[in-house]
Amino acid sequence: MKKFLLTVFLISNFINSQEIINDTLQATTQNLDEVIVKGIRAKFSTPISYSNIDKDDLESKNLGQDLPVLLNFLPSIVTTSDAGAGIGYTGIRIRGVSPQSTNITINGIPFNDPESMGTFWVNLPDFTSSVESLQVQRGIGTSTNGSGAFGASINILTDLISNKPYAELSSSFGSYNTLKNTIKFSTGKINDHFELSGRLSKIDSDGYVDRAYSDLKSYFVQGTYTDRNTLIKFLSFGGHEKTYQSWYGLTMDQLKENRRQNPYTYENEIDNYKQDHYQLHLNEKISNYWSFNLGLNYTYGRGYFEQYKEDDDINTYDGIVSSDKDINGNELGTTDLIRRRWLDNDFYVLNSSLNYSKDKIDLTISSSYSSYVGDHYGEVIWARSLSNTGEIRDRYYEGLGEKKDLSFFTKLLYSINEKTELYTDLQFRRVKYNTSGITSDLINMVLDKSYNFFNPKIGVSFKVNSKSLIYASFARANREPNRTDFESNSEIKPEKLNDIEIGWRYRTENILLNLNSYFMLYDEQLILTGEIDDVGNPKRTNSGSSYRIGLEIENSIKLSDLFLLQTNVTFSSNKNKNIFSMVDGLIYNYGKTNISFSPSFIGSNSLSYKYSNNLSFSLISKYVGKQFMGNTDQPNSILKSYFVNDLSISYLLKPNKIFESISVNLLINNLLNKEYISNGYYYTYDDTWSVPGQITTLDGAGYYPQATTNFLTGFIFKF
Questions:
Q1: Environment class of residue 221 by beta-carbon count within 10 Å: exposed (0-12), middle (13-18) or buried (19+)?
Q2: Model confidence over 117-168: pLDDT tens digits?
Q3: Of residues 64, 40, 61, the one with CA closest to residue 50
Q4: Under 8 Å between Cβ of 352 and 297
Q5: CA distances for 350 relative to 98, 147, 220, 294, 584, angstroms
Q6: Candidates 2.40.170.20, 2.60.40.10, 3.30.300.20, 3.40.50.10090; correct CATH number of 2-718?
Q7: Cα dist. 107→142, 160, 285, 539 in Å?
Q8: Residue ranges covered by each domain of the chain
Q9: Burial group, residue 706, by CB count within 10 angstroms (0-12, 13-18, 19+)
Q10: Based on C-alpha coordinates, what's the Rg of the chain?
């Protein structure tokens, strides 16, 4: 059965992208809501690779799993989950590029944490329920706000204004005691101008990994005023997450013993974090040709990671704790304690854009300014013995990070004639980053870094006929290191990328096809080393010269009125040209190697059967090729390929009374019960004690097992 499914998958060349079906050769008319993201989104003729997903595409899949997991079947994407079941801490890599290099915006406002540049979806549980549409751009893409995109960008538009009032109750449950409950409402337009809408969500799950539970709460409130030419929208959304830690993974021996075990045993080894976002958007249609958009944002985040440390070095705690003693009264220099590492941050954003659209010209002029202040500190909340001067909740380290980001871009789409369109996009970005204080390792971290980046893009698209379009583009991007990079190496360099994209789009009534080739040429790419720090953050380093070259193929074939086949595949070569590493005390040049976490083949396949207007079935498959967790192609760093199949069943009932509709959705994940691993980490260390005077380099690895066969089922009641 597995061989049959894999054969069908490889023959068909696939995609899961309803955007192919929704896209047309003509630009669509956008309402005032959609203008909020118009400046950073691509359209059909834009010479880049992208996918569009709308609310209907997400609704049947939204049973509690994080948004990255719902995007797993788009081209060039690999997702993973620390807890193994897609709820809690999840990650996404696009074209092999780390999440820190993927730009995320919500209504044009940057969502990436400015210091770490990561995106922690766990802070916004069930955010999918408030998403109207999103666009995934692969490669550098169009200019956007916030940190630059080096592998992809994902820009999200939240719920549009509803003209009619509605209420919606949804509930889902499934394996590992997973339970999600959501309430949504809208007043509809009041007096043709005002609308108030909102959502409350609660998600609980024990996780596939033992004790890797998630306790997640979130909200979304939106008030709008609109008339013919004006839109004013205020949003507040956020979440409170409590997750038991599972980022340490398992060794290979532990996997063989029990792949669901968790090395952590302290009952409160948790992450406890709150994040609140406040956005204000003003969009004004000045005339038939001019429109203006203004966006304001404030994000407040605060929380801690609690950790039990056994026999920990007392020197780490700046005299707060005292040493345990042996039976003879001699100090051991260690003690047991419980600590919390805190992050308390404020993030302010101001965006503005001006758009002119007439005849052959579509011009956008945009600016963005952001200011971030992050307070990092650690406190001891219990110790076996305190020092004479130490007290509970004394801070053993404190550090401050401040970052300011100013950018401008001008984007022009110019129709040379009926068939040819020119695309230009010029961005200037200035970044200033300052730090003070000490890190959790008691290392002084005083930085004063400034960067000026110029990121030009140019491309052309040519409409061969009413069914076919070809395009080509060149883009350059620059990106600064993040806080963790500087902690490892204060002299680390910014990364640079030249990206060439060449593609073909083809549309008929029954066949939709996208072909895109990419040539991503890097200078000092910040690649994942494979290592993680003591709180699970991935480490990165400059790799000198490197490249990613690939071909993405997407197609959708309507086999009949009942069957739809969608496929996508990505073939790629991802190489470091020269990698140096310390081996047995000497520097060794490994030459050309594979870039970490970059499989050379990724593919997905969806076969849908529409039994009736109310009942449909989909068999969805995902294949990810072999990848290395390090950059030296060592056998112990290999993540094996995996092939996973899911089954989705959707049923829609429209009663005559009470409910407008009732939707029932069933998702069976990992249908064939595959034991697979989607992520891990790899490290090396020097043995200097086995043979006196000799250094021997050894290595090790950790793995994150993903869930075997499991299910989620949900009900949506719409009033």
A1: middle
A2: 989 999 999 999 999 999 999 999 999 888 777 879 999 999 999 999 999 9
A3: 40
A4: no
A5: 27, 14, 21, 8, 52
A6: 2.40.170.20
A7: 15, 11, 18, 30
A8: 2-718
A9: buried
A10: 26
For 123, phi and psi rounded to 5 degrees?
A: -75, -15
Per-residue pLDDT band for 582 (boundaries 50, 70, 90) equals: confident
| Rounded Cα distance, 71 and 89, in Å | 15
How far is Cα 439 from Cα 377, in angstroms, rounded to an integer? Answer: 8
Q: Are 550 and 95 contacting, i.e. CB atoms less than 8 angstroms apart?
A: yes
The pLDDT-based confidence of 9 (bands split at 50, 70, 90) is very low
Residue 673 is classified by DSSP as -
Of residues 555, 625, 507, 516, the one with CA closest to residue 15: 555
Note whether 236 and 196 are within 8 A (CB): no
pLDDT in the model for residue 30: 43
Q: How far apart are CA 468 and CA 25, in angstroms?
A: 9
pTM above 0.90, yes or no: yes
Helix (H) or strand (E) holding 648: strand 642-653
- Contact between 127 and 91 under an 8 Å Cβ cutoff? The reply is no
Any idea what DSSP says for residue 640? P
Provide the H-helix boundaries in 145-289. 252-257
Of residues 615, 610, 612, 613, the one with CA closest to residue 665: 615
Write the pLDDT tens digit of every residue in 240-251.
999 999 989 999
Say how far apart CA 385 and CA 46 lie, in whole Å.
64
Q: How far is CA 247 from CA 41, 298, 703, in A?
A: 34, 29, 9
CB 666 within 8 A of CB 637: no
The one-letter code for the residue type at 582 is M
Residue 392 token pair = 């509970």
